[in-house]
Amino acid sequence: MIPAGLPPLLALTLAGLAVSAIVLARYFASSGLFAWLTARAHPGLYRGLGKQIRREIGWSAIAALIYGVPAGAVLWLWSNRQATLIYTDWTAFPAWYLPLSVFAYLFVQDSWFYWSHRAMHASPLLFRHAHAVHHQSRPPTAWTAMSFHPLESLSGAIVVPLLVFVVPIHIAMLALVLAIATIMGVTNHMGWEMFPRCIVHSRFGQWVITASHHERHHEDYRCNYGLYFRVWDRLCGTDRGLSEKLVRRGRAAA
Ligand SMILES: [Zn+2]
Ligand SMILES: [Zn+2]
C-alpha cells in the first residue's frame, strides 16, 4: 500500500493517514447503515436531532484521524518490519487458540474501557475535559459510536495497537475483533435493541452488553460502564440492568 523505500517517518505518516481514511469510511458505512435501519424500524426516532448528529459526525471525523495513526503504524510495522505478533499461517497455533485470542482481545479492551470510563465519571475534571463530549448526545444515535473528545479517542485508540505486540493473533481474528468493535459501538448507541428478547433477557444476556444496557449508562451516567461484557460492572456493583425505555420500545415494536 505504501511504496517501499520511503523514509520511515514519511511512510508511517502516510500509513496513518491511509488508515484514518479507512476508519472514517468504516464509520460512515456502519453508522449510515444502522441509521438507515433505524429509520425503517423506528421511523422518527432521530427526529429533531439533526444538529446533534452533525456534531457527532464532526467529533467522529477527528476520532477517525486519531484512531488511524497508531493503527497505521502497526500496519506498517507488520508489513515492512514483521515487528508485531499478527500472523497469517492458520497452523501457527492450535485451532482452539483462534477463539481464545478473540476473547482475550475483547476482554482486555473491555477491561481498559471499564476502568478508564469509570475514572472519567469519578473525576469531574476528567469528565469535563475528556468524556463530556460523548454524553452531549442525549439520546445517543447510530452516529454517536465514535463521538469522543480527542483525549478519549486517544485512550481508546492505543489498546489494540499495543496488544498486537503482546498477544499473538491471526489477521482474520483481528479483523473479527475490529468488526465486533465497530458493530457493537454503533448498535449499542442507536436507541433500540436489535437482539431478540430471548437473547437480551437470557443468562447469556446477563453477561454481554447490547443497546439496552449501554442506553442505561447514557440515562443514569454513574452505572453500566462496560464495553462488551457486564463482568466488571457486576463484580464491582455498578450494573443497574437494562434501560426501561429500550425494553418498552422493544415490546412495542414486537
Ligand atoms: Zn456511549
Ligand atoms: Zn460515560
Explain the overall architecture:
With 254 residues, the chain is mostly helical. The chain has one domain. Helices cover 64% and strands 2% of the residues. It contains eleven helices and two strands. The protein has a two-stranded parallel sheet. Helix 9 packs across helix 11. The longest helix has 34 residues, at 8-41. It is globular. The mean pLDDT is 94. One zinc ion (ZN) binds next to helix 3 and helix 4.
Q: Report the portion of residues in β strands.
A: under 5%
The largest sheet, given as strand count, sense and whether it forms a barrel, is: 2 strands, parallel
Question: Globular, elongated, flat, extended or rod-shaped: what is the shape?
Answer: globular
Average pLDDT score: 94
If strands are numbered along the chain, what order do they take across the biggest sheet? 1-2
Number of separate strands: 2
How many structural domains does the protein architecture include? 1
Q: Can you tell me the residue ranges where pLDDT is under 50 for at least 5 consecutive residues?
A: none
- Tally of alpha and pi helices: 11
In this entry the ligands are: zinc ion
Radius of gyration (Å): 19 Å
**Overall helicity:** 55-70%
Distance between the termini: 47 Å
Order of helices and strands: HHEHHHHEHHHHH
